[in-house]
Amino acid sequence: MAEATREPQARASRHRTRKASGSTDRLVPLYKRSSSHFSPEDRQRGTKYFREDRVRLEIDGARATGQVEGQDQDAYRVGIDWTRVGERRVHIFCECPAFANGRSCKHLWATLLALAETGVENQPPGKDRLGLRKDRASRWPELGVVSSPEPSPARPSRSRRRRSSRDLLPHGTSWRSQLDSVRDELDRLRESIMPTAHVAVAQPQTQNRVRFLINLAASTDVEGLVLDLFEKHSAAGPRRKTNDKLKRASLTGKDLERLLKAGDDSAADPLAVITALPISSAPGQGRGRKKKAKANGIQRLRLPPSLFDPLLPRLSAAGDLGWWDGRAFRTVHDLKWDTGNPWELVLKIEPAAEDSARLRAYLERNGDSVTLGKPKLIVMTDDPQTALVVFPETIARLATQRERDLPWIRLLRRTPEMLIPNGHLEEAFSELLELA
């Protein structure tokens, strides 16, 4: 009986608060202004979840994140953003299957009810009906939801690439929710299985010198090492600058095998373990330019960890290894193989201000220390001996464990530090030790 009367009591309390502030005529809770987007069944079940105290909510300005205990798993992570309510829309996200299928789910309805219960200070003024804009997981980095990779379209627009870079900008959130995201991802990684790769067959041939350039954007997307193949004309003569210009290479499987084996016929077949990847467009090809014929050969590949050690040092020594950002092909950066000891990931809690401390991540080796933001790319693998870190001028080994360290690297490369109030340090230490 007590549970059945909880919501009306909360609503009555909020109504009295609004009346006292003189804003009764202007303020209508978000759940009422968006109720038409929810089915009666989802509203009914969401109200039941709300009354059963299944919602854990955190609010940061005009952005709320939470977890709602469900039936199929411990909790679903949800997000509500009303920063654009002036445009009569609210951005929402939930990791449940119903939301993935396009529905405004019961978990979001329960969260909207819990948000209304926190008070009028967390409800925007207005009473007009609101639209709901369904977000992807990438727009909610603080939730720590890892979205499954989607096949990229044949020619992604420039505006989509610009939006994807903004999607990675972090939003403020508490240290507890950040730790929750790390904990959830650790659990998923322990149960994950990496897919087996295979290579496609290619046809055309090239006689020019080939360079292997690490594509930072593509490598970040697939969480692996993606190499783009480029030709470099090496003929001497008065037109040397033109001859030194790089362009896409398109190799047959036979040519690629020859390059990877480097004359060692006894080596295992590399084509059995690499993955040929499609590319969307040639670098630097903008609007109004004549489209080039689609290449049939291998132009991009994903290198497996088993080939890191035998191949990368040799490419570096020959001057054929480098990196580019994967977006604007303006500058190619050469890479040297670092033969030193592997770098290691270290977490440190440091004083931040009089009332707080901060958790930061560093890479350390032989007394040297760099922040986690300095590397251009970090490649994690299942084998702790094959992980890599790519700096602006060098590529080195990284001693790490994917299932233990990947969540921290993802979080603290995106958000450089985790702020912890001094009064919560003991609790934070305890939780960090549990995750160690």
Enumerate how many helices there are, as a single number.
13
Q: Approximately how much beta-strand content do the residues carry?
A: 15-25%
Q: Choose one word for the global shape.
A: globular
Q: Mean pLDDT, rounded to whole units?
A: 76
Computed structural class: alpha+beta
Provide structural commentary:
This protein has 436 residues and is α+β, with helices and mostly antiparallel strands. The chain is 30% helix and 23% strand. It is built from 13 helices and 20 strands. The strands form 3 sheets. Strands 13, 14, 15, 16, 17, 18, 19 and 20 form an 8-stranded mixed β-sheet that branches. Strands 6, 7, 8, 9, 10, 11 and 12 form a 7-stranded mixed β-sheet that branches. A 5-stranded mixed β-sheet has the order 1-2-3-4-5, with helices on one face. A hairpin with a 2-residue loop joins β14 and β15 (356-365). The two termini are 44 Å apart. 30% of the residues are buried. The model is unreliable at 1-24, 148-172, 193-206, 237-243 and 282-290 (pLDDT under 50).
Brief write-up:
The chain has 13 helices and 20 strands. By secondary structure, the protein is of the alpha+beta class.
Distinctive features:
single chain; 436 residues; alpha+beta; seven-stranded mixed sheet; 13 helices; disordered N terminus
SSE map:
Layout (H helix, E strand, L loop, with lengths): L5 H16 L8 H4 L6 H12 L3 E6 L2 E6 L7 E6 L7 E6 L2 H4 L5 H12 L13 E4 L23 H10 L7 H17 L17 E7 H7 L2 E8 L7 H4 L2 E3 L4 H9 L13 E2 L23 E4 L4 H10 L3 E4 L8 E2 L1 E2 L5 E11 L2 E10 L2 E4 L5 E3 L8 E3 L3 E6 L2 H13 L3 E4 L3 H11 L1
Parallel strand pairs: 4-5, 6-11, 13-19, 14-19
Antiparallel strand pairs: 1-2, 2-3, 3-4, 6-7, 7-8, 7-10, 9-10, 11-12, 14-15, 15-16, 15-20, 17-18, 18-19
